Amino acid sequence: MMTMDAPRRNLSLSYSVLHAADVNGDSSVTSKEEIHSMDLARQLADSPPPSAPPLRPSAVPSSTSSKDRYAPWLKKALGKMHHAEALWHTHRPPSATSVGANSLSPAPPHPHNKSLGHQGNPARPLPPPPSSSSSFVQQPATIWTAVHAGNVADVRRFLDLDKHIVFRHHEADGGKTLLQVACWHGHGDVNAKLKILQLLVQFGAVVEHQDSHGDNALHWSARMQALPTTRFLIQDTDAAVYALISENHKRQKPLDVAKLARDAKPSMVTSAIFDLLRRVHRDCNVRLKIQYGKKLRLHAEAEARARRVDDVTHAADTARMLCHSADQVWTMALEAAECVRNDLEAKVLDEGGKDAVGRARVWLETKEGKAWVKKEAPDAIEAIKSLVHKGVVPKPRDLKKAAAVRVMEEYVLGQETNMRDLIKKKFGREHPAFESRDVEYYKRVVHNGGAR
């Protein structure tokens, strides 16, 4: 038997140099011994520390590492597969058999995990197994999930906590009640479903309630082909009364729904449901007549109520339109009155101002006026000199004449301003301004004036 000689190590290169050359991809190491040493270095770096006695030379593994068993694309695909399996096991609901197996013995490692663990992109580890203390049947969050799952104890617990919960509607599911949801999911554990129906009826569930499609509990029982549920509703509740008079938005009665189900899928169950609903008019004829008369009376009352609502709505719309038109008329009248008053005030002020200017000029031509101008001339001269010094006005040729003109203009302007103020106050007393632009205020003013 031939024995395998141990490779000689190249003493010219150290292990660190070989490792650095291997990592950096140095192509300068090309000798056969150096390449063989680098291969052994990779195997030593990838393999765990030896815990068993060394093998015989014949059992020494070949230079091909186990990590090179798969191609790179296959390694990547296997890594994604392991990650998907781990994610599926995490979100999949546990079963009793799987839990028992996990509790007895741990899962064996996957044969590809070791080879893929040394790659650049290692596969994600599997999540830890669920604890044995966690319950596998979670408590329903709401009574809707309890009714859907057929959990009688939870339904009773929710009803004991709040009795009025039985009248709630599931708006996100077409306005269905708990009774309709129970009839909708009438399959599964029949005894549990019947107990839930009995609980809901005992707590006052309305069997004739119609959802957004107009279907009641019997519609859903017949549509879902639930014979025990249909029999319970007809025999133990008042739903039988509405089997022949209650219609959905497609004008289908529960009997029509049962007939369609029987024609679509003939079977013993669909035929039994159809026969059960067809015999209703013979089993409860008196109650049917009473309820039918009640339905006609309620329908007539609803139509009368709708007509009254339409009449009131029409009257309110008409009154709203008339009020809007009246408000526009009042606003236009108010604006016109304000314009007339403003024009009249401006006319009176202009006439009074012109009259005051004429009288002031006449008075300045009198002896008293001239004396007053002569008396006020020095102050005017000082004012003109100050303005000339500041550069506001140019220096006049005749300073005394300019001062006299300035005094007379100031007198005329003062007389005109005083007269305008007096006329404005007098006009305001005789023709007061509008106190408010609120239309309702003037409506009350006119109404009070008309009442007097």
UniProtKB/TrEMBL annotation:
Residues 47-56 have a biased composition (Pro residues). Residues 95-105 have a biased composition (Polar residues). Pfam families: Ank_2 (PF12796). Keywords: ANK repeat. ANK repeats lie at residues 174-212. It comes from the Eukaryota. Residues 20-68, 92-137 are annotated as: Disordered. This is Uncharacterized protein. The lineage of its organism: Eukaryota, Sar, Stramenopiles, Oomycota, Saprolegniomycetes.
